[in-house]
Amino acid sequence: MAMAATSLGTSRIPFPPSTLQTLTRGLPSISFLSLPKPFFSTSSVSSSSSSSSSSALRSTVFNHTRRRRLISVRAGTENGPGDSKRFDFDLFTIGAGSGGVRASRFAASYGATVAICELPFSTISSDNSGGVGGTCVLRGCVPKKLLVYSSKYSHEFEESHGFGWNYEVDPEHDWNILMANKNAELQRLTGIYQNILKNSGVTLIEGRGKIIDPHTVDVNGKLYSARHILVSVGSRPFILDIPGKEYAIDSDAALDLPSKPEKIAIVGGGYIALEFAGIFNGLKSDVHVFIRQKKVLRGFDEEIREFVAEQMSLRGIEFHTEESPQAILKASDGSFSLKTNKETVDGFSHVMFATGRRPNTKNLGLEEVGVELAKNGAIVVNEYSQTAVDSIWAVGDATDRINLTPVALMEGMAFAKTVFGGEPTKPNYSAVPSAVFSQPPIGQVGLTEEQAIQEYGDVDIFTANFRPLKATLSGLPDRVLMKLIVCANTKKVLGVHMCGEDSPEIIQGIAIAVKAGLTKADFDATVGIHPTSAEEFVTMRSPTRKIRRSPASEGKTEEIKSAA
Ligand SMILES: Cc1cc2nc3c(=O)[nH]c(=O)nc-3n(C[C@H](O)[C@H](O)[C@H](O)COP(=O)(O)OP(=O)(O)OC[C@H]3O[C@@H](n4cnc5c(N)ncnc54)[C@H](O)[C@@H]3O)c2cc1C
């Protein structure tokens, strides 16, 4: 997953909405943007058929051609100043990651002529390399989760002894097999994304896009004109500027190392740092995590922050808190030392920086044409993802709103609907669930306890901290923490948090209930599935604490012994 800021950088992990508001407070107010008239109205366009029968295919082709004609007529006559101009495309998208691909194929499905440019494929991103599919598919969610799967086995082997399993020799891990299989899967996925674009009628152009004027993009010296330009260039890892930074690796490199680290320093306390700590710990590397703050995962629920660090420590990860890196030194034997404000730790085979990400907006020609950028390079957009230049739009990590794949998809889809579907649509950031694929993992949706108190004053907190059934026989010290945050007045469930096995899968289901605004009574009325950990969410009967901070009950926190 992903979301809250790492402790050292400004990159973001999935923030609950109120954290998002806090983060965007510093951005300039966006009064300069008025939503343009939709490109064309859906009523004039038939929707395409996806049937594979030949008559359906003929009708699809017919509808497609008919839509093209409609668009080109309107492009030339109906859309205000500049419309007498003919464009090569209705939409030109820069960047074929999650947001760009989704926006482009939906725009095409509404009948727009669409081109998208993307850098040549590489597992490691640079100014000149990327690949269709973007960060999520090639350097983020997917390869990361594959490595999480691989690393989880060691814990499962340990658990299995209490269930009667014995191995004559300890299972061995082959890093080369993992990398080869992972890279083959990435190649397969990038191919699938290329096909998705092709089948949607989107023209894919390989190369680096740069904006020349509000309607022109240069790709490797060739100019393309477009009625609308969408910037979906994502973000790239940010490496701290300290002596020896050239020895550090980032998350791109960590996903594609030639050999498994023996001993690794991971700098950063955000979700990417914790996920990689879990991966390398599971694969039996010696893992040290250095964080600038006291706790990991800034922006998450405080109890969850403490709980996950405790559980990860029990699995052998060493946390160095309140330590800022000052230099990386290389020893004569090739190993690295990390010097911090408190100590120098020697003998690392790798030092990884998970210290945030920066929007990929340098040398794109954005400021030159009048697009406003925030201090960290994020593109400033209005609620419809439109920039200060009417014809230029931006979605995904490049706008640094909530930096998650499903959010980039939502923004891309909303953009296409607004501009080409005749249906102005704002992305909705309420109750965006998120996960951290640490070991144990975290799932969360809605407000943290601290945010709920700030927003609602009076809240009831229900918690369960227990040893799961599996741990009774495995004998391992694994525990689960579950938490419901309920508004004391309306009884609405404001936030749900979990750290423990399967929590991302469980919270995805619970997110529907929170998004729908269900109350604690609705949870209580739901029959559990037994025996599961998840059933705790519908059986927490009495609150662990009632917090009363509204003016009428200022300052009262009633601690209640143990929940249901
Ligand atoms: C290690 C890691 C783990 C993550 N895990 C999760 C997770 O578990 N769940 C989750 O939801 N999110 C996760 N994320 C975040 C997620 O990957 C991003 O939020 C998502 O990919 C953003 O999509 P996007 O379209 O904005 O940008 P991207 O997917 O980054 O796509 C941008 C594309 O633009 C291309 N590009 C850049 N500049 C140019 C140019 N000038 N011309 C042409 N092309 C250009 C790039 O090559 C890239 O392909 C993770 C991220 C990382 C780094």
Automatic annotation (TrEMBL):
Organism lineage string: Eukaryota, Viridiplantae, Streptophyta, Embryophyta, Tracheophyta
UniProt EC number: 1.8.1.7
Family stated for the protein in its record: Belongs to the class-I pyridine nucleotide-disulfide oxidoreductase family.
One BP term from GO: glutathione metabolic process
Subunit structure: Homodimer.
Catalyses which reaction(s): 2 glutathione + NADP(+) = glutathione disulfide + NADPH + H(+)
Tagged with keyword S-adenosyl-L-methionine: no
Organism (species): Dioscorea cayennensis subsp. rotundata
Necessary cofactors: FAD
Gene that produces this protein: LOC120251680
Region (Disordered): 542-564
Any GO MF annotation of the entry: NADP binding
The entry's keywords: Disulfide bond, FAD, Flavoprotein, NADP, Oxidoreductase, Redox-active center
InterPro entries linked: FAD/NAD-bd_sf, FAD/NAD-binding_dom, FAD/NAD-linked_Rdtase_dimer_sf, GSHR, GSHR/TRXR-like, Pyr_nucl-diS_OxRdtase_dimer, Pyr_OxRdtase_I_AS
Top EC class, one word: oxidoreductase
Domain Pyridine nucleotide-disulphide oxidoreductase dimerisation: 432-540
Function of the protein: Catalyzes the reduction of glutathione disulfide (GSSG) to reduced glutathione (GSH).
Domain FAD/NAD(P)-binding: 90-412
Signal peptide range: none
Single GO cellular component term: cytosol
UniProt name for this protein: Glutathione reductase
